[in-house]
Structure formats: structure tokens, C-alpha cells
Design brief:
6 helices; 140 residues; mainly alpha
Length: 140
Amino acid sequence: MAPALLALTVVVSACGQSADEAPESSVEASDSGGSGDTGSTGGAGQAPNPSGSTSESRTNDEQAFLDELTEFGLPTGMSAETTVEVGIGICLKIAEGVDDETILDEIRPLSSAIASQIEDIDTAGVGRALVDASRTHLCD
């Protein structure tokens, strides 16, 4: 798992947004009066975290992104926040008009590291899953 985390960190920095920067779409606080998140259900509007811990700053879209990748077979438990940052970086590239093949080339180190840990999923499949899930759940 450590090589994938290292690869995620490298890819996040290559995508143009550091892991320390908070995504603009994150929910700041759940007790702010509730005037903003009209589509939420239950509590702070957060989906349950598959690892069992709570993530107060993860939006429903970010959790859906992680859930889709988990269903595909990608390990996201320990690296969820970094994986979301990678997805946001992919969205930034898409917004800049960068084509999918270039994005896939840029995330190849990450895709390869993840694919090496999972049977029956190759580097291209991992990369495509990251781009597709980003486009579906994180990109505007």
C-alpha cells in the first residue's frame, strides 16, 4: 500500500493542487445552520465512510467518487483524501481542455502502482476508472 500512497502524493502534486489545499466544494462545518446543503439526508449530509471513520469534510460527490473506485476494486481506505485530490486534479486538467490520453499518461505512475496491488486490473483500467469516476462525481 505504501507505493500507492507515494504515487498518489506524486500525482497530486503533478495535477496542480497540493494535498494541503482544501477543495472548494468541501463542506466546512455541519453545524453552520444548514442553509447550504439542501440535498443532504441525515446528519451532515455525508455518506458513511467505508473504512468506518467519519469524514466531516467529504462531500457526497467525493464519497460517491470513492465508492465507485472501491466497487471497481481500487484500494481507497487509507488514501481516501489523497485519492479525492487526484480526482480534483483530473477535473482541473479536463477543465483546461487536456485530452484523456494526456491525463492517463500523467497519472500512469499512480495507475501502475495501484494496478500492481490488484489482480485482474491493469494500469490502463485503473487510469480509466480514475478519470471516469472523476468526471462522473467531481467535475462540474
